Predict the structure of AEC family transporter.
Amino acid sequence: MQGVFTGFVTIAVVIGVGALLAHLRIVDLGAQQVLSRIAFFVASPALMVITLGRADVHDVLSANLVASGAAVVVCVALYAALARWVWHRGLGEGTIGALCASYVNAGNLGIPVASYVLGDAALVAPTLLLQLLVLQPLALAFLDADARGRPTSVWQVVGRPFKNPLTLGSLAGLGLSLTGWTLPPIVRDPLTLIGNMAVPCMLIAYGIALRLGPGLGRAGSVGELATTSTIKLLVQPAVAWFVGAVVLGVDGAALLAIVVTSALPTAQNIFVHATRYDRGTTLARDTILITTVGAVPVILLAAAVLG
């Protein structure tokens, strides 16, 4: 429990540095975008190559992937039913709402939390790959279909994940782990150095965004906002725990990793998708803010109970 608390304090301090830099006008949203791009396109892929390359891929992907996937399916189905029969949302709005209720911030916060709270950045890989290879391509296909009025081609859905640097870095790391290959020092050392930038870049950029970004506004439906936030913060980690502990018999640190990754807040890129397609933008923004704040006590509680 003390290690978890120390990890969160470390993360909070670095986020606070970003917020302070923005408050003092040393940096602006332009700097936040630059840091985010460096982390997304360069540092995070390098980090995943190194961390996954030296991880036991069977331990990383087995129970964690099953439990995380089951939690996502339950949350998406629960929100979809309410969106269809209670709020009568269309395809685009319903897709954004489903992402708000199930798509975790596995990159910007998941990697730091896995690194400093769980002690291994590779533990976020199953959730990251599930989202990048399955959930996000399907969601974008639905959003494209809603925007264009016609379905997206199969090749576009299949090919979309392989244009994502995080996906490519994760797959490269998995390939190294599966084959047992070791990168030569001339390749491994620069990748390690670059990968070490990922976490501080993400956290400082996030702090800048918190200080300079928009505050909490009114969602189109307070009930819908409460529902997406509750599903994300409580239902998703609860289902992940049930599948992991009761169905699969996982315990200890492995179970804590499953629950913590499922309790991560809604990913910030959901707001990017909502803005791009002009669907559910306020709901996305407000769910991200509420779950980001609410995830901390949920994860600390999980650590106290399971740690």
The chain has one domain: 2-174+183-306. The longest helix spans residues 57-87. The domain at 2-174+183-306 is CATH 1.20.1530.20 (Na+/H+ antiporter like fold). The mean pLDDT is 85.
